Amino acid sequence: MTINQALISVSDKTGIVELAQGLRQFGVTILSTGGTAKLLKNVGVDVTEVSDYTGFPEMLDGRVKTLHPKIHAGILAQKELPAHMIAMEKMSLPTIELVVVNLYPFGQTVAKDNCSLEDAIESIDIGGSTMIRAAAKNYKNVAVVTDPEDYTSIMNEMKSTSCTVSQEHRFQLACKAFSHTAAYDSVISNYLTSINSDGQHKSFPAYLNLNFRIAQNLRYGENPHQKAAFYRDLTPAVPGSLANYTQLQGKELSYNNIADADAAWECVKTFDLPACVIVKHANPCGVAVANTLLVAYKMAFATDPTSAFGGIIAFNRKLNGATAEAVIKQFVEVVIVPEITRKAKHILARKTNVRVLILPLKGGSNTLDFKRVGGGLLVQAPDNLNIAVDHLKVVTRVQPTQQELQDLLFAWRVAKFVKSNAIVFCVNGQTLGIGAGQMSRVDSARIAAIKAQNSKLTLVSSVVASDAFFPFRDGLDVVVQAGAKAIIQPGGSLRDEEVIAAADEQGVAMMFTSVRHFRH
Q1: Catalytic annotation on 137?
Q2: Active site residue: 137, 251, 318, 345, which one?
Q3: Which one of 13, 68, 79, 281 is the catalytic residue?
Q4: Stretch(es) of the chain classified as CATH 3.40.140.20
Q5: In sequence order, what DSSP letters do the residues of 88-128 get, joined into one string?
Q6: What is the per-residue pLDDT for 520?
Q7: 269 tagged catalytic
Q8: What is residue 397's predicted lDDT score, i.e. its pLDDT?
Q9: Which residues of the chain have pLDDT under 50?
Q10: pTM
């Protein structure tokens, strides 16, 4: 299909001048609107404004400009149907073979703190969406481009094929265009159904529309008999989220790699000091903070060397050569860092199968967490609440020392990322034993103590974090008998007084947070 006439109307003007200049070199007639037409004229591109083309002026503050039969007949005419072409000739309507349109930035508008409902409504694109859908529907006769990244491929094909675009290319562009308008409409729906008519926000949208684009097909899912793929969120990506990774080296990521990498990265980026987090099967098996990355790694690894085998390692500082040298001595699946030195890069390159991911460290968490259940979807705000010292309550006669207090806060932060029921022993910014995912809290306490013993780590004078309250004193007795001198837990059990009495009886300190951190 030869491109004779193009319509260009874009909100995002990235690369549009170069595209228009290229089209004019091919002799393509260009129609344009408003700001786009003005920009192109200012750089010397010959364009015809849509209002001049239709003989109908823009009106209603720009709400009506491309909604005209001369535009939409030109886009929707099917050249293979004689009746269509006779009708076009009778009305002297030229066809339009290329539509280059992207939409008002609705998502960016409503993301602003001071966005009003009126601002949001005015950012809803009508004419643009209509042209995109019309062109995509008639892809056999029209190429529709909604993404500036596709400008180069269009120009390259037109150069090599005497100003034509293949049907296969037009079909792919149409698929992308319909996905573009679907995502756009879903953002509008999510926003409008999450507010009242006065613009005040409710808790969650009444209709939740999710938009993800496939990033890669995976070899398999959690198990080899399960098919799997990784999708990236089409809404503005949260800086620092795992989906923004750049893979430096190594084999393709697996389903389990990505899930575990997310757990490790979300945990490590919460620490201010140089930190290392090692994750195995979605649970931290070693976490530490120190003055240097190398020391943090050695401390985290010492927590549970057996579980660290084949684990995911995340750092919150630039990876240096000394730390990289230590890391490659163990079997590791994935290393995640915000930056990497040239020396460290060369060292890791010795292990060609190790996947190395680079991620920006700064950024918040996802706005919503999802969990699929049969026939439905559980949605919640992320668990990103950090407890300040002045929100803690000492409930025992014994007060924690300043060092114990710092370790309690460290242990509490780690416990948030451990599957419930979670028990975490720590000392001096290092995890010593982690009990995770047990049906009873006392079993998690026993497992955490056993793991420390297996790693030849003493629990004498350690501290313990429990992600939820102790329902009975037995769990507290286990951690104290193992050597703990201070405990942090939410409180809130019917037997709190019994547990507090047990702590006083054994001369240990205990603090309540009044917040729990279940992780299922």
Answers
A1: yes
A2: 137
A3: 281
A4: 238-358, 389-512
A5: HHHTT-----EEEE----HHHHHTSTT--HHHHHHT--SHH
A6: 87
A7: no
A8: 96
A9: none
A10: 0.86
